[in-house]
């Protein structure tokens, strides 16, 4: 691990900015900074979003686990519970379809010139995030901690070598992409 | 260099590029790519402007301090990167109402903005509730095979597809 580099605070901010520029560039070139493309996905008529996401996941999964094996990358799975992941996920989904952008693509949409993303989207997300910060303490015990399973990955859960899952999983996802392509979606 | 001025690339090329970027984020910064905590931090910064240091006492802002961090810079970079890409291909345009929306609900500005604002509130609320967004859970979390992220990402799409059908096929008809 490049721990020395990770500790250089100012350099890290610059790296974050540069990575963001590449990320935004790829999102825009992929077409996913557009409301029409995101709604096309959610209305199941245009599968661009799924194509971008799944090819990123397959590429990322193989590379990150490989780097993890070499000791160059540490995994950071997020904690979860039924209350956190299911209920939060569904709220997010309602916002996803109503706004038509997500927190990353809304930033890309702003760069693309879409003003509903800036005036409606960014301001709305800031309000929503602030509301959650205010309610966090009240929600924690009765909802967020329900069905807590923590920071666990599938290989840890099933107690197997990660590659036992990665190899069939990636093959499955690639087949899924081929099938989507053949179906003309 | 005509590929730089192309309006759109293959979604697979873009996806693979984002996957490679995630390798770099883990190796160079020890971080998964994610976008939604930047919004929570900004929200805290704005609240701090009005309410002062008291904001820092909230449990949530103890966990996510209202400061500019790596992820905040990443989101700022996304705006810049998308702008560069759109300018290079001539795809940059200032517009208020997206075509899909206008085809069903008309091109009234105020209505679209109110709906976008409500959608944004749900999204910001839900992203922080779930602990991540389409990038943090949907890409970075699922590629790590995190259980929380697979559940969250599937729920993003269940909620999103159901709401999109409700908006466009039931209300919009």
Structurally, the number of domains of chain A stands at 1
Count of discrete alpha- or pi-helical segments spanning 4 or more residues of chain B? 8
Q: What is the CA–CA distance across the termini of chain A?
A: 41 Å
pLDDT average of chain A, as an integer?
96
Oligomeric form:
heterodimer
Order of helices and strands of chain A: HHHHEHHHEHH
Distance between the termini of chain B: 45 Å
Total beta strands of chain B: 0
Shape of chain A: globular
- Read across the widest sheet of chain A, the strand sequence of neighbours is 1-2
Structural class of chain B comes to mainly alpha
Strand pairing plus helix content of chain A: what structural class? mainly alpha
Number of helices of chain A: 9
Largest sheet of chain A: 2 strands, antiparallel
Coarse morphology of chain B: globular
Give the SSE order of chain B as H and E letters: HHHHHHHH
List the uncertain runs of chain A: none
Task: Describe, in plain words, how this protein is organized in 3D.
The complex is a heterodimer of chains A (185) and B (173). With 185 residues, chain A is mainly α. Chain A has 9 helices and 2 strands. Chain A has a two-stranded antiparallel ribbon. In chain A, helix 2 packs across helix 6, helix 4 packs antiparallel against helix 9 (162-182) and helix 6 (103-112) packs antiparallel against helix 7. Helices cover 71% and strands 0% of the residues of chain B. Chain B has helices at residues 11-29, 36-51, 59-63, 70-89, 99-105, 109-130, 136-143, 147-171. By secondary structure, chain B is mainly α.
